[in-house]
Design goal:
The complex is a heterodimer of chains A (273) and B (486). Chain A is of the alpha/beta class. Helices cover 35% and strands 27% of the residues of chain A. Chain A has eight helices and twelve strands. Chain B has one domain. In chain B, strand 3 (130-136) and strand 4 form a beta hairpin. The two termini of chain B are 21 Å apart. The chains are: A alpha/beta (273), B alpha/beta (486).
């Protein structure tokens, strides 16, 4: 059921991916191909495995891959350490950005950019060059300049944390950005700022995986594909109109489809369409 | 990193288990092992000391004999008994004789050796803005920036020289903060102390450079017993730094120092330590036993004493830099990072004794435990009946790395005046997997991520250090944690 486009340029190819945390299997066979320049929205109810998919792709250690393959830019993604995935151009905007007490945001951002540039064979930016780049990106996400002097995410508001994630994305310039519920808990202004950041990023040949519970952010960022995740599987894929249909009918509608397809055992509800 | 390294130029990461572990190849004059009244007399005569000094030493020695069976056991430290007769109490580079008169007289081999440690003593290479007194084993070998200091009226010299040249000051203040009978190790030090720094800042003078003493134990089976005395007269200010290293030895070395600080009205002393004695190997063999008594007396009203320490070395650290807040409106501060790795043990903290009115003290202690290290914070805050409106704030944070290390916090609070206000905060944490993953997802390696978090944990302390020292401290942590993280 994955969206595939065989004559395009595949950036990420996931096949039959199963993943578990402790002994509980959460992803039960994911197929997903993301080509360069595409925006894919992954939608689904709470507990469907959306965040797990995002974290598994980024290499979070507590998840174990039990089956399946994933290629990123033609290389075996699952064999790479998380920091290598990041340096190769995969970025995860965290659903709950982590606080790092005492670690100054400026230093954190500089270290991130230094590592990425070194990996790509680019010269290290001088402090002045980096400050110039930081200023440009900071204005884009409308973050208070004093924030970079403070400890990473410590005492930041919810909106500031999310904008800080987008700032990091802009600085690190990945080829694939995975946004894990970046829209959750954002007021309308912050949502606009974050979406603008993503849309600017999108203008090039970059790809985005947008993990979201709500259709709201898709009013700002129009996806090329929408996938519905249910109980660890993608049960329906389509174009951006699928998101609207979901908004109208709710996730129960897909649950119904899944039951019809015999794809999920958990839902006992009758189809509503 | 383009910063100057005060402790060593080479704290790179590759082969840096303990980079300061080499031995100087310098001929030394070492007195035979063992402690007796004769040895005390010998040390005193080698220093050409006046009789009053010898008498003081002998009083201390005789008192120590009475204490002989009372080696303190209350600390959370475990070690084989120390054989005090198996230690040599005096070692001096042969070429130095009685200590240099000027830098031109210093043996070039000694200059070269200190240079290797990153402590250039030669006039043309000396560190900008830092006057250094270099102490090798039992004697001071060189002091830089003497002219500049003399012009300002600041006395900064080996204590053995001060005993001869400034007897009135020494007589008045030596033992006035840490009396010879204070405790087992301080008493031993009073009997056999060999060298150390003396510093006097005259009234109203802001010392034009940072003062630094660099301690180096070189000889095998030699104890280092230095004694430092700093007096800040009315309205003066001085920032004093102390750094320490020792060669790698299979056997333990004893270091039992005493530091006394005195501030008169409106004076301020800021005392910073980077302690990097050899910690012992990965199995716990060798390493320095560091039993140190450091105390300041804020004697004059409105004066201030601030201790900042970064303790990364030594097999055993037993050290409680303290402040007696005698004058009204005096301030005492203690900022500490203590790191243990491998089999290191640290029992360190402070004592703040409030005597004067409106006295304020701040304690911020950060303990990092890794490997099989064991870290104890032990601190006492004592508010005497006279200390109306005294205030104390204490914060103790422990960070654990791995699952075989230990962190302990032992606060003692004694309040005898109802107007006092005390706060105590404590936390214990581990470097979380979430933090590491977050940093890794930003392209930062597992190991680098640990250092960033550990540095962040210590940031509040590092900012109290002079700039060059802060960069050095952060590198020291990294080298000391090698193999424990990532």
């Amino acid at each position: 059921m994955a969206a595939t486009n065989s004559h395009s340029d595949p950036l990420l190819e996931v096949k039959g991916l199963h993943a578990a945390v402790a002994d509980t299997e959460i992803l039960k066979g994911i197929d997903l191909t993301v080509n360069r320049g595409e925006v894919h929205a992954i939608m689904g109810p709470n507990g469907s495995g959306k965040s797990t998919l995002a974290n598994v792709l980024a290499g979070r250690p507590e998840y174990h891959i039990t089956e399946g393959t994933a290629l990123f830019q033609g290389q075996d993604l699952l064999a790479m350490l998380p920091e290598i995935r990041a340096r190769e151009g995969m970025f995860l905007a965290f659903q709950y950005p982590i606080e790092l007490p005492g670690v100054r945001t400026w230093q954190f951002l500089k270290a991130a950019v230094d590592n990425i540039r070194e990996h790509r064979g680019l010269p290290e930016l001088s402090i002045r060059e980096f400050d110039g780049l930081l200023e440009e990106k900071r204005q884009m996400v409308e973050i208070d300049p004093d924030l970079v002097k403070r400890s990473v995410n410590e005492g930041f508001s919810g909106g500031e944390k999310k904008r800080n994630e987008i700032l990091q994305m802009a600085l690190m310039d990945p080829s694939l950005a995975i946004l894990d519920e970046t829209d959750s808990g954002l007021d309308i202004d912050a949502l606009r700022i974050v979406s603008n950041g993503v849309n600017r990023f999108r203008e090039s040949t970059k790809s985005v995986i947008l993990v979201t519970h709500y259709q709201r952010i898709l009013n700002y960022i129009t996806p090329d594909y929408v996938h519905v995740l249910l109980d660890g599987r993608i049960v329906k894929s389509g174009g951006s109109e699928l998101a609207l249909k979901l908004e109208e009918n709710g996730y129960d509608w897909v649950r119904g489809l899944a039951v019809q397809d015999g794809r999920t055992e958990s839902s006992k509800e009758a189809p509503t369409v | 990193m383009a910063t100057r390294n005060v402790i060593s130029r080479d704290t790179g990461v590759e082969d840096a288990q303990y980079k300061w572990g080499f031995e100087f190849n310098i001929e030394s004059d070492v007195v035979p092992k063992g402690l007796s009244e004769d040895v005390v007399r010998l040390i005193s005569s080698k220093k050409q000391e006046p009789d009053w000094m010898l008498e003081w030493r002998l009083k201390a020695y005789r008192h120590w004999l009475k204490l002989r069976t009372e080696e303190p056991t209350w600390a959370n430290l475990h070690h084989e008994p120390i054989d005090f007769q198996d230690i040599s109490y005096y070692a001096a580079p042969r070429s130095q004789g009685d200590g240099p008169k000027s830098l031109e007289d210093v043996d070039p081999e000694i200059l070269e050796a200190f240079s290797k440690l990153g402590i250039p003593l030669e006039e043309q290479k000396k560190l900008t803005g830092v006057a250094i007194d270099a102490v090798l084993d039992s004697v001071s070998v060189a002091t830089t920036y003497r002219d500049l200091l003399e012009k300002a009226g600041v006395i900064f010299c080996p204590i053995s020289e001060a005993i001869r040249n400034h007897p009135d000051l020494v007589k008045k203040y030596l033992g006035s903060v840490v009396p010879y009978s204070d405790n087992f190790y301080a008493t031993l030090n009073s009997a056999v102390f060999s060298d150390g720094s003396f510093c006097y800042i005259p009234p109203g003078v802001r010392c034009p450079v940072e003062l630094m003493t660099y301690f180096r134990i070189n000889e095998l089976d030699t104890g280092q017993f230095e004694r430092t005395l700093i007096i800040a007269d009315k309205g003066s200010y001085v920032s004093y730094l102390e750094g320490c290293t020792a060669p790698m030895r299979k056997t333990h070395q004893l270091h039992a120092a005493v530091v006394e600080l005195i501030t008169l009205e409106d004076a301020e002393i800021k005392y910073s330590t980077l302690q990097n004695w050899y910690p012992g190997d990965k199995d716990g063999n060798g390493g320095v036993y560091n039993f140190v008594t450091k105390r300041g007396k804020a004697l004059g009203d409105r004066s201030k004493i601030s201790w900042t320490q970064v303790e990364t070395g030594s097999a055993i650290t037993w050290k409680y830099p303290s402040v007696v807040l005698m004058g009204d409106d005096t301030v005492g501060e203690f900022y500490s990072v203590a790191l243990v790795n491998r089999h290191q043990q640290a029992d360190t903290g402070t004592k703040m004794t409030h005597v004067g009115k409106n006295t304020r003290s701040t304690i911020v202690a950060k303990g990092i435990s890794a490997g099989q290290g064991n870290n104890t914070y032990r601190g006492q805050v004592k508010i005497m009946p006279t200390a109306t409106n005294a205030r104390n704030f204490t914060q103790c944070d422990s960070l654990l790395i791995g699952d075989r290390c230990g962190a302990h916090t032992v606060p003692y609070i004694e309040v005898r005046n109802p107007t006092a206000s005390l706060e105590h905060e404590a936390s214990t944490s581990k470097v979380s997997d979430d933090q590491i993953f977050y940093l890794q997802q930003r392209g930062i390696s597992d190991e680098e991520a640990h250092y960033m978090i550990i540095n962040g944990f210590c940031r509040g302390i590092f900012k109290e250090l002079p700039f060059e020292f802060a960069a050095e401290a952060s590198q020291l942590l990294r080298v000391s944690l090698e193999g424990a993280v990532g």
